[in-house]
Amino acid sequence: MSKTIFRELLDKEASPALGCTEPMMFALAGAITRKHAPGKVLRVDMVGCGLMVTGVQAVGIPNTGGKTGAFLSSAVGIVNGDAEACKEVLHNIRPEDVVAAEELIQNAEFTLDMDNSTGKQVYFKLTLTTDEHVATVIFEDEHHTWTYLEADGKVLVDNRKPAGEMLIPANDVDWDVFTIENIYNWCKTADISEFGRAKEAVEMNTKVATDGLENPRGIQTARILRKNVESGFVAEDEITHVLMWGTAGADARMGGSDYPTMVSTASGNQGLMVVMAPWASSQYRKMSAEDGYRAVAFALLMNTFMKYASKEYVYMPPTCSCATTSAPAAAAGVAFLHGLTPQQINDMLCTAQVQMAGVVCDGAKPSCATRMYVALFGSLQAMMMAKEGIRATNVEGFVHNDLKVTLENLYRLQHDVLHNKVDAILWDIVKEQKVIH
Description:
The protein is an alpha+beta fold.
């Protein structure tokens, strides 16, 4: 494996998507099944793993004015979703489509339940029943990958694999090549032409972050921070600038922003933070665009490095990867601009794991932005500590002196303690709170 692995991973793990991944997947499932089941809709039956069915409840659906829910996500997909657009399935939803989708929910039966028995970290099944046809689609491993499609009892696609053969990208990389030092050196020395994906990510995600700052999207973490800067309560310094731009996009996206996002390892929130935090740092420091793009590429690749170390949890772990990987990766991009060495970056990333590693993922929601803010602040503190030669060491809990081993220890906590248990409890809570819709 040559050093082109870095360019390959940038292209593979950074890609555009519209809306939070859960509403997108529900809408895409609706759009796909509708192509094979015309007629009057009678039923829409949905079942998915824990974080799919909880994560779709609270985040805004693009082009709906911030409306939420599993039923509406699938319904707008059925009404006018563009299945060919895949992760941008919601791009052509109009106000009249939203009205039609809400009427559909009133006139047909919609059901939603959890199924964690598959062992898949990403699993979702939707069956559309009309007065003429029945169609079923199943998504596995990734939010945009459907592995099974059936229409009127005829199997059209069946690429399902048992849980033991699920997609684990970590198995396909050479970890002797894919190291912090090699990522760092490539981002420092590769020709600027290699960083087109980073430039595209900055252009795309700046629009989303601006939406989060200019409009009352989501929980408004970044807008409130900016308001307090303007009042003089918070200093207008580099850290504040990084925090504001690093979290504004998550506010927007969780609030249903109509702009597409450049995701990182299947997560739009992570893509927004790892792109905008180092870019904001470069802008504050008045560095060149080239310096900024190199730092963004480094942050994107470090997020991939840490996510791949999660093994089968790469795309949907039981812990909050927005906090445990994207916030430290974003801070690593800032550290890259500040001249920290690969060893110092290893140290800061190990220290950053201490604060948020035990935080469970309780689904996508507006408050993800606030959690990401807290994690990014702590990661920047770890950066400042590493610059002074201070770090958490391997006598402190699960932390090891080497980042990859630290993440392997975290994997053991996820696999042996949290796997499936968190989701089951969360689904019970969601049902108790009567917020399923």
